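Quick start: what a row looks like.
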Amino acid sequence: MVFSSFVSNSNSSFFYKLDPRTKLLSLAVLSILIFHETSVISLLFFLLLTFLFMFLFSISVIDILKTIKPLLFIFFLIFLLRFVFIQKEHTISFISDNKIFFEIFQNFQHFEIFQHFQIFHFLNFENLPHFEYGFISISVYTFFAALFPVLKFFILVLLSSIITQTTNTSKLVLGLERLFDYLPLKKFNISSTDLSLMIFLSLSFIPNLFNTANQISVSAQSRGLVIKKKPVLYIRILSTNLINSILKYSYDISNSMEGRCYTGYGKTSIYELNFNKYDFLFIFLLFLYSFFHFFCFRYFLI
C-alpha cells in the first residue's frame, strides 16, 4: 500500500486499549499546545517525548515515518515560502523567544567532542552571510525561524499518524460521532452521524487516490510513456483517470448506501465505547503535562 496512514495495527499495549474519544481529545489538546508554542527547546523536548512514548508502547516508528513520506514536499514548500518571505519583525521576535537555544547552539563549537567536525566551526552566526533586498531578509536566523513551523506540522502529522495507526477506523469514526453529539449541530440541521460519515469517507478516499495514482503511473510507463520526456501528457493521463476513479468510487458508495436504506438517523453500531481506568489515567497525565508545559517548562527554559 502506498499510503498507510489509515491502517491500524493490532497490539495489546496500553495505548491501544484507550477509548478513541480519549485519543481525539488528547490530539486536540496537544495541537493547541503545539500551535501556541514559541520555544524551540520545548518543542524539541515534546518531540523527544513523542518518540519515547512510541518506544514505550511498542508503536513502530518506521511505520509511522513511512506515512509522513508523501508529505515531505509540502513540508519543504512551507519551509521555502517561510524562509524567503518571512518578515523581519517575526525573525526578531523568534530570536528573542529562543535566546537560550541560540546560545547553546553556538557553544557547540567549543566542546572538545565537536572540534573535529568542520560544520560546528561554521556556527559562529556573526560571520555568516546576511542578505537583504526590500522586504526579503535571509540569514541563519530566518532559516531556523522558517524551520520552526515545519517542525510543528511534522509533530502534528506524527501525532495524527500515531492515532490512526493504533485505532480501528470504525471505532475512530464512532468516537467522532459521539463527540459531535455534544455539539449543537441539530440547530443547523446537521446530523452527527452524517458529519462523522463524511469525515470517514474523506479519509478513505486518500489511500485509494494514492493507490490509483500509483497504478495509473505504472500502467502508463509499462506502455512506453517516459514521464521526464512528456510530463504534460503524463499529467493529463493521471488527472483524467483520477477524476474518473473518484466519480466511480463516489457513485458506488452512493448506490451502496441507497441500497442499504441509509438515512443517518436511528443508526446502531456494533461497537460500544466505554471509558476505563486507562482512559482516566491517560487524561490525568495529559493535563499534568499541560500544566507542566505552561507553568513550569515555559518559564524555566525560555
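That is the whole record. Residues 15-167+281-301 form one domain. The longest helix spans residues 192-222.
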